[in-house]
Design a protein that fits this description.
Radius of gyration: 25 Å
Structural class: alpha/beta
CATH topology of the largest domain: Rossmann fold
Low-confidence stretches: none
Mean pLDDT: 93
CATH superfamily of the largest domain: Crotonobetainyl-coa:carnitine coa-transferase, domain 1
Number of strands: 15
Shape: elongated
Number of domains: 2
Number of helices: 15
Largest sheet: 6 strands, parallel
Distance between the termini: 30 Å
């Protein structure tokens, strides 16, 4: 691709861990120049956040995956000398992002009103855990805590299970993606009016928005959603929706007409139920399916279900997934060589533009590696 959509735009990333840096990663993938502003000596706290004790070039593997395609500039927000340089950078930037708790950027004199005076056209993106008001505003915006507070932990697992969080940092990832949406919208408005913008989002609001179906149902009925006793997939959906064990693995079954499913898998017990009973008798139906599907292999069931164009797929782990032709044809893998010559494989940007996949092999920066060059650019 000759020129990516955000080519020529500069983003200053005052962010750490996942939510803010994930937004910066996507902006960089779309062509923006993203400069991480990191504290001297220690840098982004994510550099020390280990995943299964995996480290590359002295930094965590997680840091390398979420901060590829960026530059690093070290500055002490409490240092008057460093703040002079930061103000010059802000005056030339297009976007600034941060995910500090409320009050941190204000104490450094880098809150939106102060930054707007330096650069009226800047788009200022701020992520918080719970917003800037209310009794939760000072609480840590950590993913597990937010999943627990938002009610999301009651959507996964079966009825008798304890609250169960997602197996990934969904609040961070979703909030970062939504911040990008807001920033892009503000940049479009700036193109039309010349005005900058303050774009604010909280991880709690992102998770509440994710649950819009459940929240709307609750407000309409006043009744809490109830998870299935067996193979819960979505508390709002009827049987057979869920994951079931087979004799050699697991099979996922989505929305299928009950009488048609009974015929396809030759279950006399299931044939006793009508489609109208799919929700009212959800647990009984799922219990029948649990017993019946355990009697044959996944492939045996899929052959019969797919012959009738029914919505069912095998449940794959990553080893089997990455070996599958369906995965390989996506070309989702992004090889990267670090500054010290170590190699790793991560995922590329999932977006395609004009039919082209967006790859970038530029590795995550070492701490402060771009300080000298950035200062020289400011002195030109």
């Amino acid at each position: 691709m000759n020129q990516l959509p955000l080519h020529g735009l500069t983003v200053l990333e005052f962010s750490q861990y996942l939510s803010g840096p994930s937004a910066g990663l996507r902006l960089a993938d779309l062509g923006a120049r993203v400069i991480k502003i990191e504290r001297p000596v220690t840098g982004d706290a994510c550099r020390r956040l280990s995943i299964k004790n995996l480290w590359i070039d002295g930094d965590s593997l997680l840091f390398h995956t979420i901060n590829r395609n960026k530059e690093s500039y070290t500055a002490d927000l409490k240092s008057p000398e460093d703040r002079v340089i930061l103000r010059k950078l802000i005056a030339e930037a297009d976007v600034l992002t941060h995910n500090f708790r409320p009050g941190v950027m204000e104490s450094a004199g880098l809150d939106y009103p102060a930054v707007q005076l330096l650069n009226p056209r800047i788009v200022y993106g701020a992520i918080s855990g719970y917003g800037n008001e209310g009794p939760w505003k000072g609480r840590p915006g950590q993913d597990l805590l937010l999943q627990s507070m938002s009610g999301l932990a009651y959507m996964t697992g079966n009825e008798m299970d304890s609250p169960m969080p997602f197996g990934l940092s969904i609040a961070d990832s979703l909030c970062g993606a939504q911040l990008v949406q807001g920033i892009l919208g503000a940049l479009v408005r700036r193109h039309k009016t010349g005005e900058g913008a303050l774009v604010e989002i909280s991880m709690m609001e992102s998770l509440l928005d994710l649950q819009f179906e459940f929240m709307t149902t609750y407000h309409s009925s006043g009744v809490l959603p109830r998870r299935s006793k067996f193979s819960n997939g979505n508390p709002l959906l009827s049987a057979p929706y869920g994951i079931y064990a087979t004799s050699d693995g697991y099979i996922a079954i989505a929305m299928i007409n009950i009488p048609q499913l009974a015929q396809a898998i030759e279950s006399e017990a299931l044939a006793e139920f009508s489609q109208e009973q799919a929700f009212s008798h959800r647990d009984e139906i799922k219990e029948i399916l649990t017993r019946h599907l355990g009697g044959q292999a996944t492939g045996w069931w899929l052959e019969r279900l797919h012959a009738e164009d029914m919505w069912a797929m095998e449940v794959l782990d990553w080893q089997r997934l990455t070996a599958h032709e369906g995965y390989r044809c996506l070309e989702i893998e992004q090889p990267i060589m670090t500054h010290r010559g170590k190699s790793l494989v991560t995922t590329r940007c999932p977006i395609r533009i004009d039919g082209e996949r967006l790859f970038s092999a530029k590795p995550a920066p070492s701490l402060g590696q771009d300080n000298e060059r950035i200062v020289m650019e400011l002195l030109k």
